[in-house]
């Protein structure tokens, strides 16, 4: 394993240098008229507007930073194995790739590998392993506390940028932590993005615009409860049948998923509910938050595409999948707020959301509201995750959420289940790509 990783590290380092060198050469060239790459030209106008509004990024900057983040993700996987005593995490700092290193016997080798790959090294006090030890100590400490204290902590994750821990709690005041956690940040716990209630009365006529894409609205009916959510990524199951990957909490009758009593999914239109699209073949709300909608035979052609969009607009074509990296630019699509963009804030975190737990999830600085549940999160042109929970889902507009969270010293935050986690949980499930 070690020799294999070493070979990958050597190849990765060479590839990263080739990727980064042209960027430096362009920076020193004579001024020229700004041009848009062929790939950036394929981004939908609504996504380009969201990138400029929320992140002040051009299409090419967004694509370049998204690709660079995946280079960091690959380096991190290697570094955890080769340099465990020194490696302390990776992130993008406004487009600059950072590798954090702590003191240790393998630090010099880790620094050489990082700099050879074109990354910037930042010195920190604690390695990732050391921070994980602190998380284990916190768990042991919480086990000794009364429920009134222990139940306040809803999640713990690494804060790679500040080389510490972040605790998510029901209240940010009154929680007295042990001395070894005196520098930990405490932030509010997330709340579910509740699916919007909806009166579902199916009609027989087909809807205009046949294809259904990620971000489009749908209605879920089960157990006499109707909910309105956003479609996620189109995919195929292990038998090759079309499915859509959306949020598990959008299924109003999760216990019946995959049975003859499973919840039904319907298309939605401005004038009401459209024809049935399929049924929920699997719904998960324990550890992860996702569901699979299996297309009816008469509707399967509507899911045979790899698009993500603002409902009714031009699509973004999905080309693959990606892993979340702190600082990477990301955008989500949903029926309520369309495209909104931000950056990844935390990765690989376990957090309680209401009565459920999202394990190994990630959070972003994206605004998402009621009805955006189940929608897609992308980085570049790659699928990244499924929208699950938000700390501002109760507000009617993102503009209001921005003002309220600013006054409270916070910011909007969207929590998600990684798409690669969902694929690993379902052998044979494949995202549609171009």
Automatic annotation (TrEMBL):
InterPro entries from the UniProt entry: Peptidase_S1_PA, Peptidase_S1_PA_chymotrypsin, Streptogrisin_prodomain, Trypsin_dom, TRYPSIN_HIS
Listed GO biological process terms: proteolysis
GO molecular function, one term: serine-type endopeptidase activity
CDD domains for this protein: alphaLP-like
Database matches in Pfam families: Trypsin
Domain of life: Bacteria
Gene3D superfamilies in the cross-refs: 3.30.300.50, Trypsin-like serine proteases
Name listed for the protein in its UniProt record: Trypsin
Organism: Rhodococcus triatomae
């Amino acid at each position: 394993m070690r020799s294999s990783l070493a070979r990958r590290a050597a190849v990765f380092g060479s590839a990263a240098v080739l990727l980064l060198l042209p960027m430096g050469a362009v920076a020193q060239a004579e001024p020229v008229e700004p041009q848009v790459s062929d790939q950036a030209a394929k981004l939908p106008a609504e996504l380009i507007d969201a990138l400029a509004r929320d992140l002040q990024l051009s299409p090419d900057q967004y694509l370049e930073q998204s690709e660079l983040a995946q280079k960091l993700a690959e380096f991190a996987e290697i570094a955890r194995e080769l340099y465990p005593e020194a490696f302390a995490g990776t992130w993008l700092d406004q487009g600059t790739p950072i590798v954090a290193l702590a003191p240790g016997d393998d630090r010099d080798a880790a620094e050489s590998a990082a700099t050879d790959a074109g990354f910037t090294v930042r010195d920190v006090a604690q390695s990732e392993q050391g921070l994980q030890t602190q998380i284990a100590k916190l768990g042991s400490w919480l086990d000794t506390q009364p429920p009134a204290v222990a139940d306040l902590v809803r999640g713990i994750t690494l804060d790679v940028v500040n080389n510490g821990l972040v605790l998510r709690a029901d209240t940010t005041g009154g929680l007295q932590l042990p001395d070894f956690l005196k520098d930990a940040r405490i932030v509010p716990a997330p709340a579910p993005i509740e699916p919007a209630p909806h009166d579902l009365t199916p009609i027989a006529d087909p809807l205009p615009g046949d294809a259904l894409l990620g971000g489009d609205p749908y209605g879920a009916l089960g157990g006499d409860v109707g909910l309105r959510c956003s479609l996620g990524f189109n995919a195929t199951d292990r038998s090759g049948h079309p499915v859509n990957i959306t949020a598990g909490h959008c299924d109003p009758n999760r216990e019946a998923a995959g049975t003859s009593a499973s919840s039904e999914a319907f298309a939605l239109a401005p004038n009401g509910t459209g024809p049935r699209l399929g049924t929920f073949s699997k719904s998960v709300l324990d550890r992860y938050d996702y569901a699979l909608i299996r297309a009816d035979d008469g509707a399967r052609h509507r899911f045979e595409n790899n698009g993500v969009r603002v409902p009714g607009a031009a699509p973004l074509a999905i080309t693959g999948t990606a892993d979340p990296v702190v600082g990477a630019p990301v955008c989500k699509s949903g029926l309520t707020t369309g495209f909104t963009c931000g950056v990844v804030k935390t990765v690989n975190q376990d957090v309680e959301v209401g009565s459920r737990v999202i394990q190994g999830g990630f959070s972003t600085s994206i605004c998402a509201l009621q009805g955006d549940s189940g929608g897609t999160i992308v980085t570049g042109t790659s699928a990244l995750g499924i929208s699950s929970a938000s700390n501002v889902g109760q507000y009617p507009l993102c503009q209001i959420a921005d003002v309220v969270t600013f006054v409270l010293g916070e910011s909007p935050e969207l929590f998600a289940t990684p798409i690669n986690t969902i694929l690993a949980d379902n052998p044979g499930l494949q995202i549609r790509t171009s």
